[in-house]
Amino acid sequence: MNPYRKYDLQKAKQYLAEAGYPGGKGLPEITLDVSATTDARQKGEFIQKCMEKLGIRISVISNTFPELVKKIDTGSTMMHTISWVAYYPDAEVFLKLFYSKNPVGIGINYHHPTYDALYEQAVNMPDSPARTKLYEQLNQFVTEQVPVIYNMHLNKIVLCQGWIKNYLLSDCINGTEIYMDVDMAQKRKILDKLHQEGK
Question: Span 1-82: which CATH code?
């Protein structure tokens, strides 16, 4: 469990003062690079408003996705937002982002030999309670070490035909389609009805 996953404005102000910037005084404006989509802009503005309460000034910079990726890859951002999804159902899909030898990064730029060693140990183990324990240890490690803020995902709304069976909206983007089926009798009935109505 992440002990920092709570809203505590007074504690944040205390940390800021302890860092030498009481009320944000003396802290230069921070740029936050986001992609040029509505939801990315809204997330950026949300972060901007949150930081205003601490006296921290954030300038949100909108980029095309290729521009944002280039800035991230070259280490040209002060702060940035980018999304990552679970394309297979295992904690490793997120833990690998903090592995220094991972060729696919999202600009975390994290390198810690202890983390790397534990990660290498975990990914070479079969699915087991022992591996889960290592995953939990890795998760706690990055909770304490890494300057990453897990933000939010917008709610997804999906419409599908009534003849689609076993559809499940999942954050794992691959593999769930094998469980889907089509009720052909129901599909034909609805299509015939629409045809008779001239639709």
Answer: 3.10.105.10
